[in-house]
Amino acid sequence: MTKARLMQGNEACAEGAIAAGVRFFAGYPITPSTEIAEAMAKLLPQHGGKFVQMEDEIASMGAILGAAMAGDKVMDATSGPGFSLKQELIGYAACAEIPCVLVDVQRVGPSTGQPTAPSQGDVMQVRWGTHGDHPMISLCPWSVRETFDLTVQAVNYAERFRTPVILLMDEMVGHLRERVELPEKVEVYPRRSPKKSRAEGYQPFEPDEDLVPNVANFGEGYHIHVTGLIHDDTGFPVGSPTVTEKAIKRLHEKIDRVAEEIIHTESYFMEDAEYAVVAFGGTARTAYESVKNMREQGMKVGLVRLITIWPFADKIIEELAGKVKGILVAELNYGQVVHEVRRAAKGQCPVLLCGKYNMKSFEPVEIEAEIEKMISDVEGGRA
Amino acid sequence: MAELERSYEKYFRQNRLPHLWCPGCGNGIVMKAIVQAIEKKGLTQDNTVIVSGIGCSSRASGYMDFDTIHTAHGRAIPFATGIKLARPELNVVVITGDGDCTAIGGNHFIHGCRRNVDLTVVLFNNNIYGMTGGQASPMTPMGGKATTAPYGSVDRTFDACALAEAAGATYVARSTAFHVQHLTDMIAKGFDNKGFSFIEAMVQCPTAFGRRNKFKSPAEMLKWMRDHSVMKAAWDKLEDVKKGEAIGQGKFPIGLLYESSGSELDYDAAYDQVIERAGGAGK
Ligand SMILES: Cc1ncc(C[n+]2csc(CCOP(=O)(O)OP(=O)(O)O)c2C)c(N)n1
Ligand code: SF4
Q1: A48 to chain B, minimum CA–CA distance in Å?
Q2: Mean pLDDT of A328-339
């Protein structure tokens, strides 16, 4: 462990990226993510890496994808309006299987919204923002230390699955200052490399056993072709229904088949809970307080915190819904994750929304009041 | 002798040919000029990366036997910037169309020039959107016909070379598909420049531009290039009044239009100093 330091979530994200081996960052400033770019501008040259401030979000996304293909581990950070601009190239990264990490420190939207205010309104944009079909991995930290850890994990997932990974943050955690000790060393997933030579018939997009291809980096003599068009194992576009179906299916399956391994959640006070709150990110911190307070008053409530947002924790929620009498989803938006929880709960218990979208984060009492309302509605047969 | 003349063939992916361009299209001429310039400068297939945007011309990356990346429409320069900064030892060549470079990618183009990253950008200027079937581009001449300008384009035209120079490119040249040797030389010299090099290559698009703009054949379009281009040295000798008249007749200068004194550091060299100052050298 390093010496304890007082650090902001955004700074911890930059530290995590460096620890995970990120050596290239291209960005465009936007509140409340800017401190990540600022920290990277400072840290990267100290580690022999490069930071470049591009002309806009599209350019920064393009630059990190180029650098990733040239062999660097890469990251970029933004907030809602910038995230929207990056969507085309996030899809490119998914299709061309380019490892990259993108941080979205959410703010209130739509449009320029409320730049400095906390929100959790990009959950669906993260999942469905690009055109076409591809899976998405997205992780959501609730503390400064966890921001460090999940950034490392995001980089590792990106490299392991050759896919874009979104670190979904919110202003509450991004700007939160906590005392943290960071590990001296973290486990890093190395860049995948070709198992065959060109003479042995290497094909850049031929999937390995785990359905992920071992794409060569530029400059290693393989003369590969990379494109955002649907392509076969050779990397060249093919306009055939069979190849298209196979390509899209593989993109999904390479993530689907490891979903259980990469879906992380945490439970608090759930052993004998009759009611559960589901929450993520900064809101989960408040929900934790609410649940703790109510436990002290003898009420059987617990918290399930989503750490992996995508792929969604379907099985965990289904099991949960079979055990409790009601689920309250607390999120700082007009209702997004609540739809996923309802879908996964399969009607086994009522799933209610505790939403907020007035620039303020939740107070514990607000969530407590909604839990109480849920309990009385369920017990009174009204929910 | 025949083999010698076709030495450039090794730079192409034979299994990807024949290409999909229309008969008479000028894109192949520029693609060949690029590989000949690569050969001339002793650059290799292993140390060169070809980056293209989206459009007919940008398809060239698929035919060229290097590490190649066909990016998104307009985004070739940002991708190339990332590649070059991550691996400065690579020679990075960008292939872009007039729409790709000056419309959707216009901002990236300006900032690529400003940043002076060591890239060689070859703009295939066919004055039209070829791939999508002949819509107007920012480089369609005023009055020129396009599917989206059926009565003649009212938009004013970009001079991409003047734009590149003003934005900070350290090497700017123009040539045409008619002047193959000259074009090759212009690209080769671009490789010599350590910084952002921009070469505008005029190409004929008989299908989407020529047909609609009263050019009877690809050959006629090449002749038009021959008759309207003026070598830079001759152009410089023209008095201002004569220059104005020439421009009025659709004439344009070709050759090395601008080269910086060479005192400016390219982005990479400048960044090395940043790494030095930050104490990260050798890491
Ligand atoms: C974001 C986006 N917008 C539009 C298109 C459609 N599109 C493909 S190529 C092209 C224009 C091509 O023109 P140019 O860049 O001049 O290249 P050319 O085909 O003439 O060589 C357009 C508009 C696209 N692929 N992506
Ligand atoms: S449309 Fe024009 S630019 Fe495209 S291939 Fe045909 S001739 Fe060439």
Answers
A1: 5
A2: 98
ipTM of this complex? 0.97
Cα of B122 to ligand 1 centre, how many Å? 16
Cα of B101 vs centre of ligand 1, distance in Å, is: 10
In A156-166, which positions are buried (b, 16+ CB within 10 angstroms) versus exposed (e)?
bbbbbbbbbbb
Amino acid B1: pLDDT? 46
Residue A147 has a pLDDT of 98
Distance CA B120, CA B107 (A): 17
Residue B2: is its pLDDT beyond 70?
no
Q: Would you say B76 and B51 are in contact if contact means Cβ atoms under 8 Å apart?
A: yes
* CA of residue A150 relative to chain centroid, distance: 9
Among candidate residues A118, A154, A151, A126, the one with its CA nearest the CA of residue A283: A118
Contact B253, B235 (CB under 8 A): yes
Q: Is the Cβ atom of B130 under 6 angstroms away from ligand 1? A: yes
Confidence band of B97 (pLDDT split at 50, 70, 90):
very high
Tell how far the Cα of B162 is from the centroid of ligand 2, in angstroms: 25
pLDDT in tens, B213-238: 999 999 999 999 999 999 999 999 99
Instruction: State the Rg of chain B over Cα.
Output: 19
Contact residues, chain A, for B107 at CB < 8 Å: 55-56, 59
Residues with CB under 6 A from ligand 2: B 21-22, 25, 27, 56, 126, 130-131, 205-208
Q: Tokens 């401030």 — which residue?
A: A53
